[in-house]
Design brief:
- This protein folds into two domains: 10-95, no CATH class; 107-156.
- The two termini are 14 Å apart.
- The protein is an alpha+beta fold.
- The protein is 30% helix and 30% strand.
- The protein is globular.
- A hairpin with a 2-residue loop joins β6 (137-144) and β7.
């Protein structure tokens, strides 16, 4: 299963904290899982002024027993984030970095996207494709002139 997100590192965490990221949402991340690990997680950061957004994100994860909202102002939370960034043995922790339209899809997915466009938008030419993350979920956004089509990333894998 394709995963576009980088691993959370100590340097990446420090950079995000320096940029004013204050809240960090942890969630289970199936897309990053492999048999060598006990669990994989995705962490998404929010600046202090987006506390409501972070709380809304955590609310979407009510069925995820691993979901947690870290507040970097709390020393214990900051320490746990540092541990996560160290990639403890048995776990993989990814960071939900913005991808956008500069994303280059893997070759296998290029054909899947062509198949999707051919079936759902056969008249579209010169299409801009963006990969976007919202509350830890991936979406593809296809744009053609003044028309758009946004689908969950999982859906493209059916083509």
């Amino acid at each position: 299963m394709y995963n576009p997100f980088p691993l959370l590192t100590t340097g990446l965490l420090e950079d995000e904290l320096a940029k004013g990221k204050h809240y960090f949402v942890r969630q289970t991340f199936v897309r990053g899982w492999d048999a060598q690990h006990k669990a994989t997680f995705l962490i998404r950061a929010y600046p202090a002024e987006e506390k409501e957004m972070a709380e809304q994100h955590i609310q979407t994860l009510q069925n995820d027993g691993n979901a947690f909202l870290y507040d970097a102002a709390i020393p214990d939370h900051r320490e746990k984030l540092k541990i996560a960034a160290s990639q403890p043995i048995g776990y993989k922790i990814f960071y939900a970095a913005r991808v956008g339209t500069k994303w280059k899809p893997p070759v296998a997915y290029e054909q899947k996207m062509r198949n999707y466009i051919g079936k759902h938008h056969p008249g579209w030419r010169k299409i801009e494709i963006g990969l976007h993350e919202e509350f830890g979920e991936l979406f593809l956004k296809f744009s053609h002139k003044d028309e758009e089509d946004t689908i969950p990333f999982d859906r493209i894998e059916l083509y």
